[in-house]
Design a protein that fits this description.
One of its GO terms (molecular function) is DNA-directed DNA polymerase activity. With 906 residues, this protein is α/β, with parallel strands linked by helices. It contains 38 helices and 16 strands. Strands 9-10-5-11-12 form a five-stranded mixed β-sheet. Strands 2-1-3-4 form a four-stranded parallel β-sheet, covered by helices on one side. A four-stranded antiparallel β-sheet has the order 13-16-14-15. α37 runs antiparallel to α38. The longest helix is centred in the N-terminal third of the chain and has 22 residues. The structure holds a DNA duplex (12 and 16 nucleotides).
DNA sequence: ATCCTCCCCTAC
DNA sequence: TAAGGTAGGGGAGGAT
């Protein structure tokens, strides 16, 4: 029995042990009861279980009946081995699901028609057909055509080449066992393409970054890449759920009913009203392992690790490898740094720790594959995530390894998030397997106590995903998180207010979020290991040792306090891609090609997030002077110097050519021998957001070709902001010329959702408070009788203004241009006869709304009249639509600002 | 004072 | 063999 349960003896929730099972079996009982009334007609679907996702034809109910009549199983909750029947899935779902078993309902229908179970793979919703592999094979050739300058394939030629390649591959004695295939083989190949294909299919050559397929291959296998991508993905998912939700949660009602219906559960009702906030932290237990064990129940209870390595001995030593020298460099560097400053890089400590774990002789040639996740049984033997397999095997010779299952992680994470989302959307996504939930409102609404809710939720998650999780509760995010740590594995813990002080006293500083090895080391050298001990330090002292912010944060944290609220909506601030593995160039050409590819990767991500950026940073890892050329870890980066160089553009861009050009320029400036490079990264910051395709619209072209002096724009924007700020601060006298109703002005910088639902600025303004704003604006007839006296609203206003000031440091779109210039631009745009682009329209709307907000009504009238006349003159329907939309949005802005539409005279 | 660049640190 | 990514917070120190 875990300690935390001892602290909370019988409060009835043990009875919940079977809650999910009860719920599921009840639903399934109903199903079989109903199904049982019909006789079984066939056994076509014997051994097949389905889960229906969304609207289908036949409907879920019909499918249910069909399954039961023909020997199959219908699940109300999705289980891991279910076929998922769906006719279409929303984009977000598609992104987050393992699509390998998402099947069209036709599969069922046609199987019935054929009176046998057809191959589901022919009915995959997003399927790659079974012949896909061959198609890909040809595609490689086509894609690489540009490289094969002189040789063009026609179809027949392709066939010949392919069969030749197959022949080559299949001849046993031609496969080389060396690191490289024999030179002659490559020279005999008919083209560069064939060489590539040969290399790939022989598997004899390991891909390095010089290979055009390397980035894709690397990312496909990189755990860190997946962790990072999934995390971002679920943050976005929550953003979207919140934007599209009506904040009704049917699961709550369901739960309430079950609670009411059952005597067993009555004592779960919340007896007292919890007046403080209750934050819940949910974290899956050793996530990767748990997901992997779903298919390997035989390994449950054993020490298990997820890794690329198969667990066998590492290969024999490669020539040139000198682990001692390399590890010593890390150690020396650490010592050197410690002598001069307390700062030590994360990486070195990480490596150093690993080195410490390794018995020199034993592990000199052990596998350097990293452990992504290990089970609690393995942890008991001293293993930890990130450890090398070599040292892990030494500590735990019977360690079982299982491979990665990235699709599985995604699927489970998706199920996890959607399960929680049935109860509340006050979720802060931390990563694919971890989140915070503000359940204050939820608990009082459902009239359930904390432990009861935790039990229900954990049961439900386990039932749906097959994976255990732990949850912690507390008055703030820090407490919730520490509670989870105590609860693990597969437990729950409520850190109540009265326990906090004692609880914090023994918490290790290293266990505080934000305190990593470096900070912990510094604190340790100050003589502090635990929170209790650190509480004796003064705020000033902490600040002087760790910096202002970090010091202040730690001061609060070691007392169990955490002023940071949950953030439900996230706005991305940078986009980057980096590869520090497999970087081995032979010449400048390969390096350049790689830079181009990596730029394309960043560009495509920017495109995906609709982001434009102003600042481009290139990060290079270069072999340090004394480091061995051959790294200890196969194709690793080894001991390196790191260089960061950035360039600030005048205008935000999402243009691939611009990015590539700047990146190459930055790289060339460093003048580094490409053969010494070990890692490359590209980051884009100072983001702006667009709604359009990255197509350069007419206005963008205009802006791009007519570079506006930075200083000028900056000063104009600053002036504008000062003005806005003043108007929005009730205590500051307003300077507006057209002040129709001064008391209403504070609300105006908040653009109503209808005004700001598109366009880049809306993104930055759409913050957690937006929901509040939404409700407020919808419920209150904005502009009539402005209730900004409400302190809550005022706080929101202030927040929005501050954010606006912060976001508007950079000029964007048309803002900052004089109105007559915009008029000229509009004319040129209309005259050009080009189809209006969404991004341009949004920019115009932004500009005009800005005029409304600035009460620049006269100039606005001129522009609107001009726009109306010229639109009429063009006689274009597309333009008429554009005009109508612009007009509508401007009117909306007027309602928000003045409380009424101002009709612009002709 | 405030901003910018180049780091470092942390988290998953 | 092996797949050492990525985003955000923050600090030091120089430029303005």
């Amino acid at each position: 029995m875990r300690r935390n349960e001892d602290k909370f003896p019988d409060n009835g929730f043990e009875a919940w042990g079977g809650y999910m099972h009860a719920k599921i079996s009840k639903l399934e009982e109903q199903f079989s009861a109903r199904a049982g009334t019909e006789e079984t007609l066939s056994n076509i679907f014997n051994g097949v279980s389905i889960y229906v996702n969304g609207f289908t034809v036949p409907s879920a109910d019909e499918l249910k009946v069909l399954m039961s009549k023909h020997g199959g199983v219908y699940h109300v909750y999705q289980r891991s081995d279910d076929y998922i029947i769906a006719s279409n899935l929303p984009d977000t779902k598609v992104k987050n699901m393992n699509l390998a078993k998402v099947v069209k309902p036709q599969w069922i229908v046609e199987s019935l028609a054929a009176n046998r179970l057809l191959d589901y793979r022919d009915y995959l919703l997003y399927g790659t057909s079974r012949t896909q592999k061959q198609i890909n094979f040809r595609k490689i050739i086509k894609e690489n055509d540009s490289l094969a300058n002189d040789i063009k394939f026609n179809d027949t030629k392709q066939e010949q080449d392919l069969s030749e390649i197959h022949k080559t591959i299949n001849e046993p004695n031609t496969t080389t066992s060396d690191q490289k295939p024999s030179k002659e083989r490559l020279d005999n190949a008919t083209s560069l393409d064939c060489q590539e294909i040969l290399k790939q299919n022989l598997g004899a050559v390991t891909k390095t970054a010089a290979d055009p397929e390397f980035i894709a291959e690397f990312y496909k296998n990189s755990r860190l890449h997946h962790i990072s991508q999934l995390g971002a993905c679920f943050k976005q998912h929550i953003n979207e759920l919140r934007e599209n939700s009506n904040f009704q949660f049917p699961a709550r009602e369901q739960l309430k009913e079950i609670i009411l219906a059952s005597n067993n559960f009555k004592n779960l009702s919340q007896l007292k009203f919890e007046k403080n906030k209750i934050i819940m932290h949910i974290d899956m237990d050793c996530f990767f392992v748990s997901v992997g064990l779903r298919n390997r129940p035989d390994l449950k209870g054993k020490p298990v690790a997820v890794t690329h390595s198969k667990g066998g001995q590492g290969r024999s030593k490669r020539p040139g490898v000198d682990r001692d020298t390399e590890f010593n460099l890390y150690k020396q560097n650490k010592a050197k740094k410690l002598g001069i400053t307390t700062g030590i890089s994360h990486d070195e400590i990480k490596i150093e720790n690993r080195v410490d774990d390794i018995d020199e002789e034993d592990s000199k040639y052990g596998s350097m594959s990293e452990i992504a996740s290990c089970s609690y049984e393995a942890r008991a033997k001293g293993l930890s995530n990130g450890m090398f397999m070599g040292s892990a095997l030494r500590l735990c010779p019977d360690l079982q390894t299982i491979p990665y299952d990235f699709d599985g992680y995604k699927e489970v994470a998706y199920t996890l998030y959607n399960t929680i989302a049935q109860y509340s959307l006050d979720i802060e996504a931390v990563s694919c397997d971890e989140m915070y939930l503000d359940c204050t409102e939820l608990l009082s609404d459902m009239n359930v106590n904390v432990q009861g809710f935790a039990t229900i939720l954990r049961e439900e998650i386990k039932a749906k995903t097959g994976c255990p999780c732990s949850t912690g509760f507390g008055g703030n995010r820090l407490q919730a998180r520490l509670a989870t740590k105590k609860a693990k594995p597969d437990g729950q813990f409520f850190l109540t207010e009265d326990l906090v002080e004692d609880f914090m006293y023994d918490i290790k500083l290293r266990d505080l979020p934000g305190v990593g090895s470096q900070t912990a080391y510094k604190l340790e050298s100050l003589g502090h290991i635990t929170c209790g001990s650190l509480q004796t330090l003064t705020l000033a002292s902490l600040k002087s040792h760790l910096g202002n912010k970090t010091g202040a944060q730690l001061f609060e944290q070691c007392r169990g306090r955490d002023p940071n609220p949950l953030t439900f909506h996230t706005v991305r601030k940078s986009v980057s891609a980096e590869v520090n593995y497999g970087i081995r160039f032979e010449n400048n050409y390969q390096c350049l090609e790689f830079l181009k590819q990596l730029s394309a990767e960043v560009h495509s991500r920017m495109h995906q997030f609709k982001a434009m950026g102003k600042c481009i940073t290139l990060k290079l890892m270069v072999r340090a002077k004394d480091a061995p050329v051959e790294t200890a870890k196969f194709l690793g980066h080894g001991y390196c110097d790191v260089i960061n160089k950035s360039v600030s553009l005048q205008t935000a861009t999402n243009d691939l050519e611009v990015i590539t050009k700047e990146v190459i320029l930055l790289c060339k400036k460093q003048n580094i021998d490409p053969t010494e490079m070990r890692g490359i990264g590209i980051q884009v910051t100072k983001l702006d957001y667009v709604t359009s395709r990255p197509t350069v619209g007419a206005i963008n072209k205009f802006l791009f070709n007519n570079k506006i002096p930075k200083a000028k724009i900056k000063s104009e924007i600053k002036a504008e902001l000062v003005e806005t700020d003043q108007r929005n601060n009730p205590t500051t006298p307003t300077k507006s010329k057209v002040s129709t109703s001064p008391k209403k002005s504070p609300i105006i910088s908040i653009k109503s959702p209808t005004i700001r639902k598109r366009g880049r600025p809306s993104k930055s303004l759409r913050q957690p408070s937006n929901n509040l704003m939404n409700k407020f604006l919808q419920g209150q007839n904005v502009g009539r009788d402005v209730p900004y006296k409400d302190p809550m609203i005022r706080a929101v206003v202030k927040e929005e203004v501050e954010r606006k000031v912060e976001q508007s440091q950079t000029p964007r779109g048309l803002l900052g241009l004089p109105w007559n210039k915009v008029r000229a631009l509009l004319r040129a745009w209309l005259d050009s006869g080009e189809t209006p682009l969404q991004c341009d329209v949004v920019m115009i709307i932004d500009y005009l709304q800005e005029m409304v907000i600035n009460k620049n009504i006269e100039k606005l009238q001129v522009l609107m009249n001009f726009l109306r006349r010229t639109t009429r003159d063009t006689g274009s329907v597309a333009w008429l639509e554009v005009y109508n939309r612009i007009s509508e949005e401007v009117q909306n802005a007027m309602v928000a600002v003045y409380g009424k539409k101002l009709y612009i005279s002709n």
